[in-house]
Design goal:
This protein is α+β, with helices and mostly antiparallel strands. The protein contains ten helices and four strands. It has a domain at about 35-100 and about 160-315 and about 370-480: Outer membrane efflux proteins (OEP) (Up-down Bundle). The longest helix is centred in the middle third of the chain and has 67 residues, at about 150-215. About 60% of the residues lie in helices and about 10% in strands. The protein is elongated and about 140 Å long.
Length: about 475
């Protein structure tokens, strides 16, 4: 009888793993997004001498600025947000290992020494005192009959992918932010130099006007107007100097340093980098695979879908195979005798029959989370398309604006020369000179800002296209390494 029961239990234990071929819950399918086959705006073109394509992963090299490249590379090593993202990747990898461990059996060993005292009773007059020695192993294995554990592993793997893509998204944002701040710094230094040059010219005009006033060839009003224009320009210089310093502080923070970390390196003036490159815009559908934020949204949707299966598996019974093997004796010398051994083996079933609807409510919760992640994915795609289209139109139109401002600067320089000659010859009043100088300074400052905007728009376009990170086929960037099986 006992042998038959043992054989039946053993047969059940051996057959249970064979039933774990299915995983309950929906299988994940990447959602289909309908996007236009062409961009609405005109894609930027490049001079004939420029190469046809540039690597999106290191787009900043199109500016051909060694200092910019150095800042971005150092930022990718030291930025604190990126380092925290790396920690989150390690957390997700560890969680994936924990989830995978649930698929296998657990084995524990135990040993105990118990000393006890048994009081006298009606059948025994003496008090019994003695030791009990125990040593053995126990094991347990939850048979993943309905695939709930495997769905958990799937969800943990998707969480890992989301963490990886989150770091890739940070790389895209960081490279763009460092470049934008650097371009803004060089533009501010350029504008500061323009203000100082205009101040010199206006101060010279003010001195000349005072000399003419002292000689009786100019009015006091001309002197006051010239001094007022010079003072107005001088008032712009401290504001620009403050913005230069603040931008250096921002770059220092992006590189994980104190505000003063880059002062020595970046305080000297440098030229504003200008890129002459063809941007590999591609097709709108390329964004779905290229942008890390979209890839992250897909991974989060995958995880939410898998967790529906985890919650659904809780509606079904759980089967566990457990066993124990060991020795027990009151005499330590006889602990390992065959007569002291014990063992047990058999399956167990656990199936909650009533929990006030908790399990079904949890299932509905996971379905709602999956629906939210799907909507978040769709929103991410639409936002990506908007950013790319906006960057395209801004890049095209700002280049037109810059060309117009360059023409305005040339015209205003001529106007200053002519107004000064006519005033010196007594054929024009001094107000024309002041207006010409004021217009020249405004045009030169606007041209400097437009040149910066042309470059920062290019940065925004590369960011919108998902540039700034590499796949593991590149240079070993951990951010995009695929989870290892």
């Amino acid at each position: 009888m006992h042998r038959t029961t043992y054989r039946t239990s053993l047969a059940i234990c051996l057959c249970l793993p064979l039933l774990t071929s299915c995983a309950i819950g929906p299988d994940f399918l990447r959602p289909e997004s309908k996007v236009s086959s062409q961009w609405l705006g005109q894609t930027p073109t490049a001079p004939e001498a420029a190469p046809a394509e540039h690597n999106l992963a290191q787009w900043w090299t199109v500016f051909n600025d060694a200092q910019l490249t150095s800042l971005i590379e150092r930022g990718m090593q030291a930025n604190l947000d990126l380092r925290m993202a790396g920690s989150r990747i390690r957390q997700a990898r560890a969680s994936m290992g924990i989830a995978g461990a649930d698929l296998g059996p657990t084995v524990n060993t135990n040993a105990a020494l118990t000393r006890s005292r048994t009081p006298a009773s009606a059948s025994r007059s003496e008090v019994m005192t003695g030791n009990l020695y125990q040593m053995g192993f126990d094991a347990g294995w939850e048979i993943d009959l309905f695939g709930g554990l495997r769905r958990g592993v799937e969800a943990a793997g998707a969480d890992y992918e989301a963490a990886v893509e989150s770091r890739s998204d940070l790389l895209v944002s960081l490279s763009a932010e460092v470049a934008s701040n650097y371009l803004n710094l060089r533009s501010l230094q350029q504008r500061l130099a323009i203000a100082q040059e205009n101040l010199k010219a206006q101060a010279h005009t003010s001195d000349l006007t005072r000399q003419r006033f002292n000689a009786g060839f100019a009015s006091k009003l001309d002197v006051v107007r010239a001094e007022a224009l010079a003072a107005t320009t001088a008032g712009q210089i401290p504001l620009l100097e403050a913005q230069v310093r603040q931008t250096i502080y921002s770059l220092s923070l992006l590189l994980g340093g104190e505000p003063s970390a880059l002062l020595t390196e970046l305080t000297p003036d440098g030229p504003l980098p200008v890129a002459q490159a063809t941007v590999p815009v591609g097709l709108p559908s390329d964004l779905l695979l290229r942008r890390p934020d979209i890839r992250k949204a897909v991974a989060k949707l995958h995880a939410a879908t898998a967790r529906i299966g985890v919650a659904k598996a809780d509606l079904f019974p759980k089967f566990t195979l457990s066993g124990a093997l060991g020795y027990q004796n009151i005499n330590s010398n006889a602990l390992f005798n065959p007569a002291s051994s014990f063992w047990s083996l058999g399956p167990a079933l656990n199936w909650p029959l009533f929990d006030m609807g908790r399990t079904r409510a949890n299932l509905e919760l996971k379905k709602a989370v999956q629906e939210e992640e799907l909507l978040a994915y769709e929103q991410t795609v639409l936002n990506a398309l908007r950013e790319a289209e906006s960057a395209l139109i801004a890049s095209t139109k700002e280049e037109e604006h810059r060309k117009s401002m360059a023409q305005a600067v040339a015209a205003n320089r001529t106007a200053v020369e002519l107004a000064t000659l006519l005033y010196t010859a007594g054929q024009n009043d001094f107000l024309a000179v002041l207006d010409a100088q004021r217009s020249l300074y405004a045009a030169e400052d606007s041209l400097a800002q437009s040149s910066r905007t042309v470059s920062t728009n290019l940065v925004a376009l590369y960011k919108a296209l998902g540039g700034g990170w590499q796949t593991e086929e590149g240079k070993g960037n951990e951010s995009s390494a695929a989870p290892k099986e």
